[in-house]
Specification:
Elements: E1 2-6, H1 10-20, E2 25-30, H2 33-42, E3 46-49, H3 55-60, E4 68-71, H4 76-90, E5 94-98, H5 102-105, E6 120-122, H6 124-137, E7 141-147, E8 152-158, H7 171-176, E9 182-189, E10 192-194, E11 207-213, H8 217-224, E12 233-237, H9 241-250, E13 255-260, H10 263-272, E14 277-280, H11 286-291, E15 299-302, H12 307-319, E16 324-328, H13 332-338, E17 345-347, H14 349-358, E18 366-372, E19 377-383, E20 407-414, E21 417-420, E22 432-437, H15 443-449
Parallel strand pairs: 1-2, 1-4, 2-3, 4-5, 5-6, 12-13, 12-15, 13-14, 15-16, 16-17
Antiparallel strand pairs: 7-8, 8-11, 9-10, 9-11, 18-19, 19-22, 20-21, 20-22
Helix pairs in contact: 1-14, 6-9, 6-14
Length: 457
């Protein structure tokens, strides 16, 4: 595909990296020459310096025959106008725009063919908020991703002593929980991927990815580690967009406090939130954390826009007795260094957002993409079309489908029914097939499996 990306910041740069590695024709536009040079040093892409909403810059970037425009500059207005220009002057087929400001997002009529012609709206803050909310909903999970409108979830969890399945073969799970169906899609042991079968023994410390119907998630988690008590008391460091949205989502069921240093912002937060306690101060202040009973806090969530402040506040909170700390970290290089030591979960906004963007770039009818393990692995929800003549998957038993190495089918959703993957199941037209790829470089092979041959037409 020929794709123009406006904005070479963290989201634009991460997207360019993902797409360039998949043999797409990528052009990145940004006003910052240094950012563009750094990207071009690493990736096989074209770069154009200039303002992405200007018609001459879009023309220079190849908008006349581009398949897709992805506008992810840090200005909502530039992104929105660029989509309008691409639509009006160049008839660009697909336009994706990042829009962060809530006043715009509240007015759905703004986005459509007779207003701002944006096909897909991406709000990174909303994506990150949903990601953190799911982690709070499932204490002990490292990552929770939704498929088929939330009917199925893929969960990453660290196996630990005390979980009934730890030290046993996977086949034991079926005997132990005969009424609950689940599929372990992958196991990462000391950062090496293991494709599991019934004889695989789960070891203490394994990172296990499993798929199950949403109402079975907790039961399966309890097999892999002692089930944690639900989270009640939550402290959020940072009252920006993410902190505000997070408090809004959590305050009806949890006791929430926000620590924000800006007094004007504190007033805005206290006026717009119902039950959340808003505190003015610095989350890296030890006395303040102790005054707010940090030792009784279930989750400390650092979501300011400063990585260093988030890391320092989280490490301090953990040392002072917070049960779990979750930290927003924009610098991808920090994530691996930090997670699993004093910080329980490091959240990369780019990796969390990238799935929403990749969903619209994948070939075949792909309706969901989730980037996993800092972009190395991927989970995909693809719809099977055609019949046994035109499709490589329709009509076949799951054990007959020629999946690339390291790829597993975890579940199928058929007419609102969740079928956990077993070899004897045959794929039918319109099935939603959920796949896990240990190695995302195999994504092209998976896409080809779900593309319909000419016989279908």
């Amino acid at each position: 595909m020929k794709i123009i990306i406006l904005g070479a910041g963290q989201v634009g740069g991460t997207l360019a990296e993902n797409l360039a590695s998949e043999a797409n024709d990528i052009t990145v536009v940004d006003h910052d020459a240094e950012r563009l040079r750094q990207l071009q040093d690493r990736l096989d892409i074209r770069t154009i310096q200039g303002k992405g909403s200007y018609p001459n810059i879009l023309k220079q970037a190849g908008a006349e025959d581009a398949d897709m425009l992805v506008a992810v500059t840090n200005s909502d207005e530039v992104n929105m106008v660029a989509c309008q220009v691409a639509h009006t002057l160049f008839k660009t087929p697909t336009k994706i725009s990042r829009v962060r400001a809530i006043p715009y997002l509240l007015k759905k009529d703004l986005f459509g063919s007779d207003a701002f012609p944006i096909d897909v709206l991406i709000s990174p803050e909303q994506v990150v908020t949903n990601h953190i909310t799911r982690l709070i909903e499932y204490p002990g999970a490292l990552q929770v991703t939704d498929f088929s409108k939330g009917m199925v979830r893929l969960v990453a969890i660290r196996a630990s002593k005390g979980g009934p399945l730890v030290g046993h073969e996977l086949a034991y799970l079926r005997q132990h929980m005969p009424n609950i169906d689940t599929r372990v899609a992958a196991i990462f042991r000391k950062d090496s991927a293991i494709t599991p079968d019934g004889n695989t023994v789960i070891e203490d410390g394994d990172e296990v990815f499993f798929i199950a119907a949403t109402n079975h998630i907790r039961a399966v988690m309890s097999e892999l580690q002692p089930l944690e008590k639900p989270y009640k008391r939550i402290i959020i460091a940072g009252g920006g967009n993410i902190g505000h949205r997070l408090a809004e989502k959590l305050e009806s069921k949890h006791q929430v406090k926000i620590i924000e240093h800006n007094s004007k912002r504190c007033v805005e937060l206290s006026e717009s939130l119902n039950k959340t306690i808003v505190l003015q101060g610095n989350a890296t202040n030890k006395e303040m954390l102790l005054e707010e009973n940090i030792e009784d806090t279930d989750v400390f969530c650092a979501v300011t826009n400063d990585d260093d402040a988030n890391i320092m506040a989280s490490m301090l909170a953990k040392r002072l007795g917070a049960r779990k700390v979750m930290t927003l970290i924009s610098n991808v290089d920090y994530v691996d260094l930090i997670q699993g030591r004093e910080i329980d979960i490091a959240i990369s906004p780019q990796q969390t957002t990238i799935g929403s963007l990749l969903t619209h770039v994948r070939r075949g009818d792909v309706v969901n993409v989730h980037s996993l393990r800092r972009g190395a692995a991927e989970a995909i929800e693809a719809i099977a079309h055609g019949d046994h003549r035109s499709s490589k998957v329709v009509g076949k038993r799951l054990d007959e489908i020629p999946l690339p190495e390291g790829t597993t089918i975890g579940a199928i959703v058929r007419h609102n029914e969740v079928l956990i993957a077993h070899d004897h199941i045959r794929v039918q037209p319109d099935d939603h097939v959920i796949l896990f790829l240990v190695d995302k470089s195999k994504v092209r092979e998976v896409e080809k499996l779900f593309q319909v041959g000419l016989a279908f037409f």
